[in-house]
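Notes to self after the Tuesday call (sharing in case useful).
The group wants a holo model before anyone commits to mutagenesis around the pocket. I volunteered. Ligand is FE2/S2 (inorganic) cluster. Logging inputs and output together so the record is complete.
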Amino acid sequence: MTETPADAAATTERQADKVTPQFEAEIDEIVTHYPVSKRSASLPLLHYWQNHFGFVDDSGIEWIAAKLGLQPINIYELVTFYPWFRREAAGKTIIRVCRTLACAMAGGYEVRDQFCKATGIDPHHHHHGFGIAPPTSADGKFSVEFVECLASCGSAPVALINDTLHENISPEAVPGIVEKLK
Ligand code: FES
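Result:
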């Protein structure tokens, strides 16, 4: 595949260059909740950044570090430690299927495969390594990934679709769930 100038521009685009005064004001407001140690605002800021931009690039790490008077490594180690944070873009809708014991035994793996099928993602594509974007549909609409226990073991198998928890999912119900998300 040949890279177009638009692709090249997209890859060199820095998220920090897109920070608006309003976005920065919202960040400053979050920081005020941590008067004792600004460092404690690191995770809330990373969540806010990822919700806004979809993932956290190098410029985001540097920007947040500078905002909190920290070294970029202090932020980088959080982004690489917590699987929740991504260093690459994922689909607009992220389907996180629990694969821990209760869900695995109740059919979580089959549910995950059905989500892949219904969204046009190769079910054999498993991603490894923190920060890497999960398998994403060609149209960029969906990503599907496994996560560990979502604290809803009594209603296994479960999946978190963006911010909504879906419980007792049967493989047969998956196409209908995906249809509603389109
Ligand atoms: S094992 Fe799936 S929610 Fe706990």
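Two things stood out.
Residues 93-181 form a domain with the Glutaredoxin fold (CATH 3.40.30.10).
Helices lie at 5-12, 21-31, 42-53, 58-68, 72-81, 101-105, 108-119, 174-181.
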